[in-house]
Amino acid sequence: MAANGSGGGSDRQRVAQQRLRIIAGHLRRPADEDSAVRAAECKAPQSESDASAEGKTVPRRRQEIMKWNGWGYNDTKFIFNKKGQTEFTGKRYRLSGMILPGLQDWFENTFGASVHHKSPATNILNSSAVQPPNLNEAFVEELKSTGVPFSHDAEDRVFRANGHCLHEIFPLREGKIGRVPDTVVWPNCHNDVVKIVELACKHNVCLIPFGGGTSVSSALECPLEETRSIVSLDTSQMNRILWIDEKNLTAHVEAGIIGQDLERLLNESGYCTGHEPDSMEFSSLGGWVATRASGMKKNVYGNIEDLVVHIKMVTPQGVIEKSCQGPRMSTGPDIHHFILGSEGTLGLVTEVTMKIRPVPAYQKYGSVVFPDFEQGVACLREVARQRCAPASIRLMDNKQFQFGHALKPQGSSMFTSFLDGLKKFYITKFKGFDPNRLCVATLLFEGDREKVLQHEKQVYDIAAKFGGLAAGEDNGQRGYMLTFVIAYLRDLGLDYYVIAESFETSVPWDRVLDVCRNVKARIVRECKERGVQFSPLSTCRVTQTYDAGACVYFYFAFNYRGLSDPIHTFEQVEHAAREEILANGGSLSHHHGGGDRFKIKRLLIKRRRRVGVNDAAVITGCILTSKRWPGHPEPRGEEVILRSPRHVLTASPSRKLMGESSIYQPCTSSANTLPRPYHRSAGPLPYPVFHVPTSICQGKPLRLRTACHRVKLILGLYNVSSVLGPPLGARHCPPTVWLHRAPTSLSLYLHRGHCTQETENMT
Amino acid sequence: MTHTDTASGRAKMDHGEEFVDILEERRRSYDLGHALRTIKLHPYQGGPRCSTAKLNKAVLDSQYLRYVAEEIATETGSSVVEVREQARRLLEEMSQNLQLSSLRLMSYTITKVAKRLFSSIYVNMEGLSMLQKATQETPVILMPNHKSYLDFLVISYILFTYDIPVPVIASVIRKYLLGLKQQSIGLAEMKMVGEILRRSGAFFIRRAIGSDKLYWAVLSEYVKTIVRTGYAPMKFYVEGLRSRTLKSLTPKLGMMHMVLEPYFKSEVFDITLVPISISYDRVLEESLHAHELLGVPKPKETTTSLLKSTKVLQEDYGAMHVNFGRPISVRQMCEGKINRCQYNLTPRDLPQKPTEEAQACVRWLAHLVVRVQDEGSVISPWSLMACMLLQAPITALTEEGLLWHQLTGKTLWLRKLVLDCGARLNWPAQTPDSDVMSSAVALHRSVVHQKAGRVYLVQEEEPARRHPISPQERMMRTASAVLMLASYRNQSLHVFVRPALVATALHITESTQRDELFAFYCFLQELFSYEFVSIPGELSQDFEEACSLLKKCGAAHISQQEVTPSAGGMETLSFLRALIQPFIDSYQVMLRYLCEEGDQVLTEKQFLPAVRSLATRLILSGELDTYEALSSDTQKNLLLALRRLEAVTKSRASEENEFNVNKAAIRTIGDVLSGKIPPQMLQTTPDARL
Ligand SMILES: Cc1cc2nc3c(=O)[nH]c(=O)nc-3n(C[C@H](O)[C@H](O)[C@H](O)COP(=O)(O)OP(=O)(O)OC[C@H]3O[C@@H](n4cnc5c(N)ncnc54)[C@H](O)[C@@H]3O)c2cc1C
Prior knowledge:
The complex is a heterodimer of chains A (763) and B (690). In chain A, 33% of the residues lie in helices and 15% in strands.
C-alpha cells in the first residue's frame, strides 16, 4: 500500500514517517482496560531498551476492534448499497469510503449470484452458545498466583478458537460455536511464558499458542478429542522491540508483536524488516516463525527463515535457543529448522532477533501486460534466471485481471484502468491483445533511486521480449492494495451465498503452467461433478519467484445455492485441488503452513515415505527412519529417541544420549522442576531427540518397533508432541503439554489399517 | 434394426442412435461448393493453433531431444550437432503439413469417389457432437479401427464436413512412399502422393523402426508435442495394421504410450480418446486380403494403383457406417491406476523407460479402446449370413448348393440372437426380410451367388487356362472364397466370442462347475489371445458377462456354482461352439505339426509354408474341414500365443527369428485343448499372465 512513486532523496526520517502513516493506517490506540482481566506488568529483563510501548494495535480484548466472525476491523467491510453500487466502509484504507461501480455486475455475472439472495451472518456473539469452560482448578489457582493476566470470558475464548479457514468462519457466521479454549492467558514477557508452561506441564493442561489469529491452516482449532483443559496463550501483549543493534543491523523483538506495529516502530528509527506478508496488519512475529511465513518483498529481504538470526523458544523441557548470534553454524542440524514451521507443536516462541534494513530511499510500482499467461510465466522465469526480480513481482491470470478490474473505484485518478481510454485502444487494437487472454504482472521496486530506475529498465526490457507492455504504476499499486482487502471481499461473498478460499503451493519452474492449468481445471470439473449449480471462479497468480521454482496462489469461489452441505462440498473440491497440486509436483504449502489436519491427514498419509519426508520432515527438521542403529541396546521404556547423523531412531530411557552442546544453552528457567535439557556429557553430538509422550503409548509399554512406527507416523503428520531431549537421568516420561493436536492424530493414525481406511473414505 | 428415412438420409438404430447419411446432402448439392465453403472452427481452448514450422521447431528444440542427442552422440562418437542435424532430417521426413487448401481438395475428391463407391456413409450425429465439444476442451485422440485403406481419410473428410478440426494422422508407411527407396513407379509420382497426404494431415512413420533410438525419440517428441499443445486432434490406429481378417487385432502400445504420456506427466489436464468404429458392408480389399492370407502373390500394394483400377470404381460397396464412440477421459480411466507423483522427482524430459504401472495402464486402455471399437461397430445382415454359410458343410456350398430358405431361416434365427446379445445390427426395418438378404447376396456376388433357390460359393475364375485344374488349385480357389466369408463372419464375431468360448468350455470339459469352466475359459482365452482380443485383467468379468448372456438368450441356467445348458438352448450352444470350432481345428493341426513334424528349431519363414502344406494335405484327404488353417494370420497368431505361453521361445543368438520349440509343452497344450487333461496341468496360470 505504500505509495512513494515520486519520493526519493535520502531523508530517511521523512520516508519513515510516510511509511508509518501508510502501513499502519489511521489506527488509534484502543482502550486497554478490562476488568475481567487480571493485569500484572512483567518486568522484562531489558526493559530499559524497550523501544516504545505506545502505538500497539491489538488490545487484550480483540473484540473491541475486530470482527469475531469475519476478517479484520469492525468498522471496515464491503457492502452492496441500495443504488446498486459497492461501498467499502470505514476510513482505514485508501479504498475506504469509495464506491466500486463495477463490482456488483462482476459479482453477479461471475457467480450467478444476486444481491437479492442474501445469506447474512449472525451479528451478535451469543455467549450462551459457548460451552462453559472446562477448568483445571489446580492450574487456575497456581496461575492466579503468578499474576499473569488470564480470562474465562466467553468472548475472549471464542476469539481464540479459530483462524480464517472457510470451514472455521462459516459456522461462526451461522452462530455455531464449537470447542473453544477454556482459558486465555496473556503473558507479558518471556518469563511469564516459562511460568505458564511449567504450570501446564505440572497440571497436564493443553496449550495452544495464539499470535495474530490469521492462521489459514486450521492450526488454531481446538481438537474435538481433547479432554484436558485447553489454554490459549495469547502473545499479543508481548509486543515490544527490546533492542535495536545498529552495528549488526538486528532487532530483538518479542514474538507477539504484529507486523504493522513492528514496521511502524522500526520505521520510527529509520529501519524496517521488509517482511510483509499480506496478513501483516494482524499476524505476529511468533506466528511467522511458527508457520514459516513469506512476505511479498522476499526478493529483497528474504523469507522469515532468512530473516531470523536467533529464536528463543520455551518448550516443556526448558528453553531452547542458540548460544550466539553468528550468522551461520555447522554444529549439527540447525535447530531453527525445526522451530520454523512447527506451528506451536514444539514450544512457544517468545523472542526473536531479526535482521533489519534501513528504510529504502525509493519505491516504485509498475505493471506489465502480457498477451497471455504463458508469456507472462516465461517472462517471470527469465527474470528469475537473470536473478533480477524486483522486491515483488506477481503475475495474475486473466480471470484475476478481470476481477481486479471490477474493483476499480469511481472517480479517483490513481485508479484509472488500462482498459480505459488510450490504453484500451492501444492494447486491444494495436497490439492485438485479446482481453480474454491477456494477463498482468505487478511490480514493486525498492532501493536507491538510481538503482531502481536501472533495475526497472532491465525488467521491462525482459518483459518486452515476451510481448509484455508496460502498463503503468497505478495498475501495479492497485494490484498490491487489493491483496490487503481481498480478505474483506470474502465476507462480502459470504453475505450472498458465495464461498471462497485461497491456497498456495510452490513448484519447479517447468511445472508452473501445468499446475496452474490443471488445478484450475480440476476445480471446475470437481465442482461440476459434485453438483455445484453455478460455474466456479477458479483463478491463480504466480506470487513469488525463486531460482528453481515459483509460488502459485489459487483463489476459488462458487455460489453454493442449492447445496445441502456447502462446506463439505467445498472441502471435497479443495481436497481434490490439493491432490492435483501434489500430482503435479507441487508442495502442500509454500507459506501457509500445513497444520490443517485435513490436508496433512489425508494427503500425506496417503503418499509414500518420500513425500512424507519432503513435506513433513522439513517441518519437524528431521528425517526419520525406523531402522535401529546396530549396537544399541533393546529399548525398554516408552521413550523413542531420534539421533541424527545417521537418522537412527532408537529408544533408551535410561541412557544419557545427549552430548556436548554448543548450540543449545542450558535452560534459563528459574523453576527447578523444569528439567534442564542439555548438559555436558560424553557421547555423540546432540541432535534433535524426540520424546514420546506417555499418552501416545496409551499407558501400555511399547515395543520399539511399534513406538518407532507411531512416532514416525505422528512426525510424518507433524503433529509432534515431543520435545527436545530426555531429562537428564530421567527414567520416565513427564506428561507432555504440547499435545494439543496429537490426540486427533493418535486416534486416527496409530494403526495403519485405520488410516488407510480414512484415506479410502475420502476418495 | 434400422429404420431408414430415405428422403432425409437418416437412419435410426435400435439403440436409438441416429445415423445420418452424409453423402445424401452431397448428392443434392455441388461438391465444389461444399469443398470451398467458409469454415468456422472452434479451436482448442480458445488458443490459436501454431504453424507447422513452429511445431517442428518446438520438437527440435525440446529438452528431451537434447538429452537424447547427447546420449547418442556419446554412444556413437559423433558430434551433437550431427545428431541434431540427423534428427532434423528425420523430422522433415516425418512431419505433416496440414493445409486448408489441401483439405478442400481432399474433400472434393473424396466426395467424388465416395459417391461412386458407396450408397451411403452413415455417421452418428450424437458422437460427432460429443467429439466437437471434446476438441475444444482437451487434446483429442481419434482411434478408429482399421479394416480398409479407405479408412485413411474418411474421418478427416467427415470432420471437415462438420467444421470440426481435422486430425493429423499417424501413418505407418513403406519406405518408397517417403521417396527413400526406388520403386517401379516413378519416384516423383510417389513423392507427390506423399506430399498430398502430408498436406491432408498425414505424418509418416517408417514401418520398421527397430532399435533406432533417434528415430523413436523424434517420433515420440513429435507426437507428444502435438498432444501437449493441442495442435490438432491426432488419429492413429491402435491396432497398428490394417486387419486383413476384419477381426480386431491385439493393440500395439508404442504409439499409445506416446500419446498418453503428456497426461501421466501432468502436461495436460486430460486427454480424450474417441474410439471410432468403421464398418463396411463390403470391403474394397476383400479378395486382396484373402490372397495375402493364403500367401498367394498379389499386385503390389500401392495407393494409386488401387484407386486407379477402374474396375474397383465401377463396383458397388454398399454402405459404410462410421460410429464415433463416447469420448473416454484418460484422467477418469487412469484414476487409481497411475500415480502421477512418480514423475515428480526427475525432470520430465529425461529419457526414461515407462514404469511398470504406466505400461500396465497403457496396455489396459489400449485393449479397452479395441473393445469399445468392437462394440460400436455396426453389423450387416450379410455378416450374419456369412456365419451361417460357414457352418454349412463345404461341399454344400461348392457343389450341391445351400437351400436359400434354409439359409434365410437360420439367418433370421441368428438375427434374434445377435439382438439379444445387444449388438448394433443394421437391418432395414421397412424392407421385407427376404429382400434384405437377397440384396446382401447381390452385393457380395464376388463371394456367393444365388441360383434356383440355392446358394453357391463363387469359385474364382482364372483367365485362359491351358491344363485342367488340379485338386490343389481348386482347393485354393475355394479357400479364397471361404476366407472372404470368414472375414465377413468376423465382423460379428466379437458379439458372440465370449459366450462361444463358454459354450466351448461346456462342451470340452463336459463339466458344469463354474470354476472348472472358468479355468478352461481362461485357457482358451490365453491360447486364442491373438485371435480374440481380451482386456488384460478382466477375464473374470468377461466370463461373468458371457454367462449372463447365455442366460439371457435362454441357452443356459446360471447358479452360484454351476452353468448348465438349458433344454431349449441346444441350438444356440451348438451354433456358438461351431463358431469357435474352425479355430480349434486349425490350432490342433498346427500343434500337431509342431509336435510331430516340425524341427526343434524353426523360423517363421519355414513354419508358414510347412503348416500350409500339411493343412492342404489334410483338407484334401478330408481329415480337416476348415480352410482357415491355411490363413497365415491364424498361423502367426498361434506362434505368438505359444510364445506367450512359453511353449515356444525365441532363441536369442539367432538373427533369423528362430524359435525353439518345446514339444512337451506343446503336446500338453494340445491335450488340454482336446479335453484330455485339465488346464491346471499347464505350468503357467493363464490368469496371472493375461
Ligand atoms: C488474508 C490473509 C493473508 C495472508 N497472507 C500471507 C502471506 O502473504 N504470507 C504468509 O506467509 N502467510 C500469509 N497468511 C497466513 C498467516 O497470516 C500466516 O501463517 C501468519 O504467519 C500467521 O501468524 P499469526 O500471528 O496470525 O499466527 P496464528 O494464526 O495466531 O497462529 C498460527 C500458528 O502458529 C502458532 N503460533 C502462533 N504464535 C506462536 C508463537 N509465538 N510461538 C509458537 N507458535 C506460535 C499457533 O499455535 C498456530 O499453530 C495470510 C493469511 C490471511 C488470512
